[in-house]
Amino acid sequence: MGLTNRTQHQHARRIFTAALKAADPIEAVGRYFRREGETLIAGGKRYALGSFDSILVIGAGKASAAMAQAVERALGKRISAGWINTKYGHGAPLKRIHVHECSHPVPDEAGVEGARRIVELAESAGPRDLVIALISGGASALTPSPAPPITLAEKQETTKLLLACGANIHEINAIRKHISTFKGGQLARAAAPATVIALMLSDVIGDSLESIGSGPTAPDPTTFASCVRLLEGYAIDKKVPAAVLRRLREGAAGEVAETPKAGDAAFARVRNLIVGSNALAVDAAAAEARALGYRTLVLSTRIEGETRDVAGMHAAIVKEIRAARRPLTEPACLISGGETTVTIRGDGLGGRNQEFALACAIDLAGMPDVCALSGGTDGTDGPTDAAGAIADGGTLDAAAAAGMDARAFLARNDSYHFFDRLGLLLKPGPTRTNVMDVRILLAGIPGAGRKRASRRG
Q1: Most buried pick, 64, 125, 166, 231, via CB within 10 A?
Q2: Cα–chain-centroid distance for residue 329?
Q3: Are both 134 and 226 inside the same structural domain?
Q4: 138 near 103, Cβ under 8 Å?
């Protein structure tokens, strides 16, 4: 990598870091949740702390431990008890709230036990109690509560099939809600008639309440019937465990009670507040890019679809910038957010962000002064220890020199090993936040044109 590309890589990493800082859960909670004397202010609404006999804190997600730190800072000893489930390695030191680590994205027995404890706490709340629910990305997988007679193993197998077929997060969560006793508003039902304040760090397209962590405190618009159609649409209805398909079909026939819908009494004293989102992270990334001297365009914070197709679209815009000076002139920065999906075709290791970077490396091969970075704000990408990867127009040449065929690695979904050998993985470690992904593409370098003109002079 030459000096010019090294500068671009550094810029891309700085822009991504700015996005991570904006998604910090402690700051996000603090913007919406604070205490003034004996008054709690949440989302602009005031609550007299003296009106509550006890305050319970429950929740789940990759950012839940950091969110709990913010709640402890605000309420301290006023908290009576608490329990949160978070991903292994994503815990934080807490004094009054128990941190319980478990598996993500495929749930485990630790998650089952933690979900049981959370529901127990919620059910213990009375009409003069306050329940604070902390929900962030990953909460759905971290709170497995299989509806009998479905077993955890059967729920794990269902999750694996949905991930492998390319189902998006909304579709996966719809199924999870209907084979669970926790999700889709059922946690709110357990906490009723207590006052519930749910603080949510959104990791879903459009920030829909029912999709964040499978909406444990929000009305569920999905149905058993829609879940059956979903499995049939992906042609996995014959592959999912029999107990799962049986429950969904019995529910569609009206033989199993539906999840609570809008207007249900379970939500009478529930307030759901979104405290952080992908849009906030993307805005901060754009501000950093402008500060570095790039003309910057945010494409969208709602990008979804097949990763390789999305990468091709982003690369095409970079090529348009280079060839036709539109929609921006260089030095240019394109930023997008959201969450794509990968249809697994091979037996390699990777995630959607690493696959995006690899597809961009192929599409942008040979172009000077271009760079693509894609990273998950939670610090992980698929079943790997990387958040994503970074590539440029010379990545394929570097790979060829190392004896690697980039297209073969892409065909095997083996982007992790590809970028690992080149030293181009992003590894920020657990960020303890999660607001989906941020993608950054750079074309040209601020000041490079002036420097060249100066040298010619």
Answers
A1: 64
A2: 32
A3: yes
A4: no
CATH of the domain at 324: 3.40.1480.10
Cα dihedral sign for 131, 134, 138, 142?
A: negative
Nearest by Cα to 427 from 416, 435, 418, 436? 416
Residues linked to residue 389 through DSSP beta bridges, in sequence order: 374, 425
Distance CA(457)–CA(451), nearest Å, equals: 10
pTM to 2 decimal places: 0.82
Domain boundary among 276, 298, 319: 276
Tokens for 74? 């605000």
Residue 313 has a CB neighbour count (10 Å cut-off) of 13
**pLDDT mean for each 10 residues of the chain (457 residues):** 73 97 93 96 97 98 96 97 95 96 90 97 98 94 94 91 88 91 96 98 90 94 96 97 97 96 97 95 97 98 96 98 98 96 94 98 97 95 96 97 98 98 95 93 85 43
Residue 152: domain span: 24-276
Can you say whether residue 305 is alpha, beta or left, with left for phi > 0 and alpha for psi between -120 and 50 degrees? left
CA distance 211 to 272: 12
Of 247, 276, 305, which closes a domain? 276
